[in-house]
Amino acid sequence: xxxxxxxxxxxxxxxALLVGAISVGLAAGCASSTGSGDARLGxxxxxxxxxxxxxxxxxxxxxxxxxxxxxxxxxxxxxxxGVASSDGIGTFFQATVSDRGCNLFALTADDGRKRxxxxxxxxxxxxxxxxDGRGSLFxxxxxxxxxxxxxxxxxxxxETRGIPTTVTLLDNRHLLLISHLGIARVxxxxxxxxxxxxxxxxxxxxxxxxxxxxxxxxxxxRGCPAPGPAAVDTETGTAYLTAWNPGEPAPELVAVxxxxxxxxxxxxxxxxxxxxxxxxxxxxxxxxRSRVHLHAxxxxxxxxxxxxGSPLWSAPVGYRPDTPPALLPDGTLVTGGRTTTVWRxxxxxxxxxxxxxxxVAVREEDGRGREVWRRDDLRQLTNPAxxxxxxxxxxxxxxxxxxxxxxxVHLLDGTDGRTVHEIAVxxxxxxxxxxxxxxxxxxxxxxxxxxxxxxx
Length: 456
Fold this sequence. Notes:
Blueprint: H1 9-29, E1 70-75, E2 85-86, E3 91-95, E4 104-108, E5 114-118, E6 130-131, E7 137-141, E8 144-148, E9 154-159, E10 164-169, E11 174-179, E12 183-188, E13 199-200, E14 231-233, E15 238-243, E16 252-259, E17 265-273, E18 284-285, E19 291-295, E20 301-305, E21 311-315, E22 326-327, E23 333-334, E24 359-365, E25 368-375, E26 385-386, E27 391-398, E28 406-413, E29 419-425, E30 432-437, E31 443-447, E32 451-455
Antiparallel strand pairs: 1-32, 2-3, 3-4, 4-5, 6-7, 7-8, 8-9, 10-11, 11-12, 12-13, 14-15, 15-16, 16-17, 18-19, 19-20, 20-21, 22-23, 23-24, 24-25, 26-27, 27-28, 28-29, 30-31, 31-32
């Protein structure tokens, strides 16, 4: 399979009509303020968003078995472009791209049984639901974000200018939304109503179609001002993202802070130029929140101070990852893979099966980024997942036939990169859309064909 399908104009129109119906219905029936107050929780202590959680660290909240094996798999009947998120209480959530039928699934983590599914106008470069501590979802859609209860009931719809690429819980009351057009806003988690005014991080945009420029998000071109989810420090309410004003010659690294109050406020703290360009992969926040890490256009991994954006170090990795690095507890960054599930437009120079994509570990030592180990024998297909006990889970190309090469999952030792355990994924071919680990140590692999495999 090649890249995931891009919705047609007719499909866009249908989505717009569906969004309108959802927004009117939910405003009338579900968006009223309730007395639940602090009954809701912050983001789930599991793999709760596309990059694992607010820091974008790709780190699981649990260790995995020394020798995980397949416990279940199922196909969902449509392509997928994002990872399976999880609520930490027994459910995986997987979104797909389809013109009809369900495209958001709640699957029981133990056996893959479908709890419920919904037809929603999901959209985005990588479609993954954000999950709170009670299993409620915040779903990126065409022109907005929808809130869905843990039982699958629609709650509210918050319109955005553009397609949401950042959907992150700042706390139990506030949800940060940043669209691919660079429009930032905070809404109330209970009602979807505004908790701040809009902040155009990349300047004012006058696009009439909410999806204008979306095809450029995967590569981070200027046509997509804010391509990836911001890394968020929930302790300070600060978000770090790359933004490219289409009228400027180079992108920028930007820090935005939310201050709660009777009238919430979003403000830009600082912004620094990125003359080396950028990729569409997200920014990653360090363990101590003093640094952010991101890939430049040539693939090199760079580090910047969160205090003022000043550059600290840069290390070459030898290729251009499409997915963010995973951050181990000791501060080691393990680079991501390359995937063809993100469509980049007619001038895309990716091969049908992108590569090479070795697994490279970089760590800061004496103020410099230094390569600590490298696996050139592995061709990584998606994002890696780091565990709390210093392991790394990767999905790589393996075996199969020349026409349909297979997929395997490797559990690596984070200190030296050696393979601790390898699992051949049965009947799996083509690109991989995501890899995640839930709070019970289950590994979820989703292929671009829309098949979900869970290992434990």
